[in-house]
Give the backbone structure.
Amino acid sequence: MSPVEGYHAHVYFDAQTLEQARALCDSVAAKFDIRMGRVHERPVGPHPDWSCQLAFEHEKFADVMLHLALHRDGLVIFTHPNTGDDLADHTRHAIWMGGIRELNVGMFRR
């Protein structure tokens, strides 16, 4: 396995949970000093739902994941490592909280 360069947690939401997701992402980014991406109000990349990405280092993994687990309040969260193998990162290495969504991983096929 390739070394892990960091992680992405994608918080999924819809029109009814938009503000809840935005508040969660804002609070996690501030609390743990991690990068928060745009709040996408449409599916982007392989993600089937609206989402916001949180990017963080290996050293913050346990704290960020525990916080997300305790504060997601029903939101689905998809987390993956960044090893340089996008297909494996989004499939075999995937970590799901609250449910599993089918990703459009065709863009990662070799």
Q: What stands out?
A: The CA atoms of residues 6 and 57 lie 4 Å apart.
